[in-house]
Write a structure and sequence with these properties.
The complex is a heterodimer. By secondary structure, chain A is α+β, with helices and mostly antiparallel strands. Chain A has 9 helices and 20 strands. In chain A, 41% of the residues are buried. Chain B has a domain of 227 residues: MetI-like fold (Orthogonal Bundle). Classes of the chains: A alpha+beta, B mainly alpha.
């Protein structure tokens, strides 16, 4: 068990900078996810923690010990690869026991330990099978077991579920979380799937282009995104973004749509904040589709007028795509039975609590 | 009451099958197998003839005591039919078995060295180093040189006043004039060195292709578990390369047993019979002693031995993988 601390970690491949000055602290015994689109440097970060890549600059600490010069095999890190990297010429039992075998542990102990792990992962029946013939689902479990048996201080998982079928992925999400609680292990998990990160992790680090965007609990990431990238990346369907500018009139502050005339009345705190903001003529407001409500009548003056373009009925909910002003599209999550026709005028209610304002130039949230 | 319904389905099916078999003629083109066979038959017959004819002719000749000097061409060899006396003689022929033993010694040592060198060099070529492409091209040169030329070059190389002795003289600071090819042991060493030089590149190529194809993540997984380089080699690389290694060893082994040109040019099997391999032995029997039927019988004996050895060596490849329950 150990915490992981990264300090100004940087990795260059030739002229490409994969990770830029990354400073992060993964707390002990917690489940953390590194989330980002492909090519954002998350796997490189993982490989550096594991020791498979050498950082160009910066330091890696496990607890208070600097690990930069410790070879990967000595870091006591469990690593689960995206493609499982099962030893296909061995049986399941030999795979799981490999870590002990190369440490020179005697046969009887290996058999006992393998038995324990197999029980935890429900693999007992498959122990004598040839590992190359397992389904990907079971291979994933074997890969987990193979890392677990050496009792690593830190568990690193590189998109471990991306090749699994959907049902098993959901099941493994739950399983992994249960295992993590049971063995009280520090786990760091790389994924590009926000649902996976949100549902499993205690902490999420969102990365893009090798730069850490935000680090926080799933709640913080979802409710207080620090910039446009995080706001856009988290949530499905993604957040609505409407370009706007700040306008004050009679002591009231408004956000006025650039491509239309939708206005949002601001509370005093935000008005004062925006009055002082130098780039207040070039803003973007964002609201998640799930925080918008559709009404048939403009019963409140602050409702925004929009026309229905098309519907996406998803079963448990319906995503309504509407046109707001001249060229802006806005998505609203409505009741599954919502069936208004294209062209119908609807009135959108925005809960001000869930309104996010971003500077269009820097992309940063204004709070 | 309804007799048609009363016939059980299985009986009915059997009746139909019998009827179909009766109806079928030998040359039924509507049968896919017959049709396919008839289309490929000409090629199959030609191929069979090319492969089988020399073999059958050899078996035929080997069972006689015919040789061109006894008159008639080989088709009349039956006039000298002697029921396999050649084979009995071969079993008692010490020179034959000694030649065979020597051949296996040369092939065994040479192939083992080629394998170790090839694998080792292949490992070096997995990493990047300056001039890799040049070295890569140089590595392949020996294989492209005609064996006869290589044999001649090595014959020069091992002469008592040749470059090897000159180099040794320089190193030890006094004249060194060992006549390599005139000494039993050193002649053998010289032949093996030449053979290894010529064929290590092939081993290198096969091993490199095997190593390049190894799954990298499995190696990394083993690294993460704390495996040393040797453990990774022992538990991952070797088992995963096993099929390729076996095939490479069998191919090279079979080729090495046929070694002729190098030996013939360097020592002609000498001094005395010290480097007489089975090919040299057969050459002498057939073209110096002109005992064709005996040479044919010897060739057949070697074929049988080699077939047994090769099928034994290839057996690990045929074991099916363990079935999933």
């Amino acid at each position: 068990m150990a915490s992981v601390r990264l300090e100004n970690l940087r990795k260059e491949f030739g002229s490409v900078v994969a990770v830029k000055e990354l400073t992060l602290h993964f707390p002990d015994k917690k489940f953390a996810a590194i989330l980002g689109p492909s090519g954002c440097g998350k796997t490189t970060t993982m490989n550096m923690i594991a020791g498979l890549e050498t950082p160009t600059r910066g330091f890696i600490y496990f607890d208070d010990r600097c690990m930069n010069d410790v070879p990967p095999g000595k870091r006591n890190v469990g690593f689960v690869f995206q493609n499982y990297a099962i030893f296909t010429h061995m049986t399941v039992a030999e795979n799981i026991g490999f870590g002990l075998k190369i440490r020179g542990v005697d046969e009887a102990t290996i058999r006992r330990e393998v038995g324990k792990i197999a029980e935890l992962l429900e693999l007992t029946d498959m122990l004598p099978m040839n590992a190359g013939r397992l389904s990907v689902n079971d291979m994933q479990k074997v890969a987990l077991g193979r890392s677990m048996i050496v009792k690593p201080r830190i568990f690193l998982l590189d998109e471990p579920f991306s090749n699994l079928d959907a049902a098993f992925r959901a099941y493994m999400r739950g399983e992994l979380k249960r295992i993590q609680r049971e063995i009280g292990q520090t786990m760091i998990y790389v994924t590009h799937d926000q649902v996976e990160a949100m549902s499993m992790a205690d902490y999420i680090a969102v990365m893009d282009f090798g730069v850490l965007q935000q680090f926080g609990t799933p709640d913080e990431i979802y409710n207080q995104p620090v910039n446009l990238f995080v706001a856009n990346f988290i949530g499905s369907p993604n957040m609505n973004f409407i370009p706007c500018y700040f306008h004050s009139q009679n002591g009231q502050g408004y956000l006025v749509q650039k491509h239309g005339n939708a206005r949002i009345l601001l509370d005093d705190r935000r008005r004062q904040l925006l009055e002082r903001h130098p780039g207040n003529q070039d803003l973007i407001w964002g609201v998640r589709p799930e925080h918008l409500t559709l009404h048939a009548e403009p019963s409140q003056p602050e409702y925004l007028r929009a026309t229905v373009r098309f519907l996406e009925p998803l079963g448990p909910k319906t995503v309504v795509h509407l046109e707001l002003g001249d060229q802006d599209t806005i998505k609203v999550i409505a009741h599954p039975s919502y069936r208004e026709k294209t062209g119908t005028v609807q009135w959108i209610e925005i809960n001000p609590k869930y309104l996010h304002i971003f500077d269009a130039k820097t992309g940063l949230a204004i709070r | 009451m309804d007799r048609n319904v009363a016939i059980p389905a299985i009986v009915e099916r059997r009746v139909q099958l019998v009827a179909r078999l009766r109806r079928r003629r030998f040359w039924d083109m509507s049968d896919v197998r017959v049709f396919a066979t008839s289309l490929t038959a000409p090629a199959q017959i030609v191929l069979l003839f090319i492969i089988m004819f020399p073999l059958l002719a050899e078996v035929y000749i080997s069972l006689t005591s015919w040789t061109p000097t006894r008159g008639g061409d080989w088709t009349q060899a039956y006039r000298f039919w002697d029921w396999g006396r050649n084979y009995v003689e071969i079993l008692r022929d010490l020179a034959f078995w000694q030649a065979l033993g020597r051949t296996f010694l040369i092939a065994g040592v040479a192939v083992a060295l080629e394998f170790l060198l090839g694998l080792g060099i292949a490992f070096l070529f997995l990493d990047e180093f300056p001039g890799k492409r040049v070295f890569y091209a140089l590595m392949l040169v020996p294989m492209m040189i005609v064996p006869a030329v290589a044999g001649y070059v090595f014959w020069l190389f091992f002469q008592s006043n040749g470059p090897l002795n000159a180099i040794i003289s320089l190193l030890i600071g006094q004249p060194f004039t060992l006549t390599w090819l005139a000494n039993d042991v050193t002649a053998m060493i010289a032949v093996i060195v030449a053979e290894v030089w010529e064929w290590t590149p092939l081993m290198f190529l096969i091993m490199l292709s095997g190593l390049v194809g190894l799954p990298e993540d499995q190696m990394r997984a083993a690294t993460m578990l704390g495996a040393t380089s040797w453990q990774k080699f022992r538990y991952l690389v070797l088992p995963m390369l096993k099929p390729i290694i076996i095939i490479a060893l069998v191919i090279r082994g079979m080729e090495a047993v046929k070694i002729f040109d190098m030996v013939y040019l360097m020592t002609q099997g000498g001094p005395a019979q010290a480097t007489e391999t089975i090919s040299i032995y057969m050459y002498k029997i057939a073209f110096q002693q002109v005992r064709w039927s005996y040479a044919a019988a010897a060739a057949m004996t070697i074929l049988v031995i080699m077939t047994i050895l090769a099928s034994y060596a290839l057996r690990p490849l045929q074991t099916p993988q363990r079935e999933v329950a």
